[in-house]
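Researcher: Good morning. I'm working through a list of sequences from a screen, and I'd like to move beyond sequence-only analysis. For each chain I'm collecting a predicted structure so we can compare shapes side by side. This is the next one on the list. No need for commentary yet; just the structure.
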Amino acid sequence: MLPAAKLLAHQSTSAHIVIIGAGAAGLAMASRLQRSLSGVRITLVGSRERHFYQPGFTLIGAGLWSQQDVVTDTRDWIPADVAWIEADAIAFDPDSQRISLSTGVRLKYDVLVVATGCQLNYGEIEGMSTDLIGQYGIGSIYAGPEAAAGTSRALEQFMARGKGRAIFTLPNTPIKCAGAPLKAIFTSLSRLEETGLREHFQVDFYTPYRHQVFSVPVYNDFVLRRWREQQVRLQDQRHLSAIDPAARVALFRHADGTTERQEFEFIHIVPPMSAPDAVRQSELVWREGEWAGEWLEVDQYSLQHRRYPEVFGIGDVIGTPFGKTAASVKKQAPVLEENILSYLAGRSLTARYNGYTSCPLITGMGRAMLAEFGYGAELMPSFPFISPIEESWAVWVMKEKMLQPAYYAMLNGRV
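Model: Good morning. Structure tokens for this chain:
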């Protein structure tokens, strides 16, 4: 049986749908809605001219891919009938169904799709800015392809020392691609082992959580067990709060508010993250609960805003238990498409997102495990021939060779 969104293809409407964010989620929704609706007016808002295949950042940081491997033109992914405004949303007024843009324009909508992605708050770490990445032994794959390449160079310089201390961090906020900090340390460990001098390098991982580096217990236990074998020291219940780049000193804050200074030769920084300020400062943000003041409020199953029914969310910006990966967007997009079509037709919203997310968790060069899970940390394997709790070369090949074409098909609304 065809999905409901396909049965309703070419549903007619005169609505103006505004999509805020021209990243993976926004582009996927623009393609799907343009194909499913006739008579619709779709406006896509986003200022970034280059589109980044963000799952490739870890491979750039590992020294395996180049920056050019992850960069395309945003315009190439926008359907011909979709209007693109190269600007950013600076304020949301959901009561009047208007958005203020960085160009001074106020945009009126009938349906709003918030797909802004998340904001990287490097500035919340005192002394840290993105222009430091690649210098002073500082790495951070999250800031973009240039930063990922700078991370690889910083690690190479650290390796050339023949000894020293490497620190890897995790912030005290939800983050996109929660497996990326683990991929960064695992690929770095492989590179350190290749020097033949692994015993001369000290490696520490700092987490704000107690004995936790990943939210799904089976994968968390695997990682901690593997790190014990690899002599990685876990420093828990503390997070990076400040850095002195020139002195190569990091300041960590404990759960009780006390701080400690730690020296390093290399440090990989994962910044605190949140929804963009325009969302955080609007009525669209969660007002209570664990995501209050930080993330877009939506029903975790329908992806519809809980107070403004004409507003929907998708991707990294939403405040839900899981759902901040490209694989999440792949599962969210058809749900959101079907529910928007139902909303426009005055029907009940019946499509449900089950929290599915996926992370090809690289555990070393040439090996990975396919972590697939959803709400309740329930494992949701897609391939009967791939164990979700075992490492394999096949999953490594999937990560390095196969997922990028599938990602681009998602942008076109094909998968």
